[in-house]
Amino acid sequence: MKGQEWYQADDVAEAYEDKRFSRGGQLIDEREKAAVLDAIGPVADRKILEIACGTGRFTAMLADRGADIVGLDISAPMLQQGREKARQVGVDDSLELLRGDAARLPFPDDHFDTVFAMRFFHLADTPAEYLAEMRRVSREQIFFDTFNRFSTRSLYNWALPMGSRLYSSGEVADLLTGAGLELAGVEHDWILPYGFYRKVPNSIASTFRTLDRRLGATGIGDVLASVSYWDARV
Q1: I want to staple 138 with a disulfide (CB 3.0 to 4.6 A). Which of 78, 98, 115, 202 is the partner?
Q2: What are the chain's domains?
Q3: Residues 6+ apart with CB under 8 A from 60
Q4: How confident is the model at residue 223 (pLDDT cuts 50, 70, 90)?
C-alpha cells in the first residue's frame, strides 16, 4: 500500500485536512461529500463500512445522519483525528473507528449494506485484492473513486510524495467484473486537478470551478475528467 508509513506520521495526520480542504480545497470536500451522499442515498439505519476512513470526514458525516457506520484505517494517528472530529460533531457514541488492514477485513461475509472508499484506490498496490474484500463484506453496494489516467492528474502526478495509481475506464470495468460487481452508475468530474484548487483562495477557485463544470458538461468532459465516482452493485 503506497504511503502506508507516511500516513502514520503524527504531523501528517494533524495537517491532513488543513492541507487538502482549506482554500480552494473546500470545493473538493463539498463535492466528495455530495458524491457519497448521492450514491448511498438515505443513510439512516443503513449498515455502512468506510475503508481508509482517515480523519473521519465521511464517517462523522454519515453517523450524524443516522447511519450505523464503522470506519477502518491502518493509521492510528489518522484514526485519532477521526475520533476528535466525532467528538466535535457529537457522534462519538454513534460510530466505531477501528485500526485494520483493508486487504483482510475483520468482518463476516455480507455484513454491511454498503462499503465505500474515498481517496483509497490511487494508493492501492493490489486493487483487485482490496475490491474483492470490499465485495465479500457487502451484501448490496460498493462505492469508490479513482484518479484517471488520461487526464490533467497525470501532469503533476510525479510531484506527489508517493505518486498515484491512475486508472482507465477499462481497468475499472475489469476490476468490477473480476470482483463479481455490476456497475450501477458513474460520474466523471474535475477537469483541473485537485492540486490546482488547493493552491488558490476559495474565491478564485470558485470561478475556475464554474468553468470546470461547464467544460465537464460538454462532450469532452468525461474524457478529460481527472476523477471518477463508481457506484457498483453486488
Answers
A1: 115
A2: 6-233 (3.40.50.150)
A3: 82, 85, 86, 89, 91, 95
A4: confident
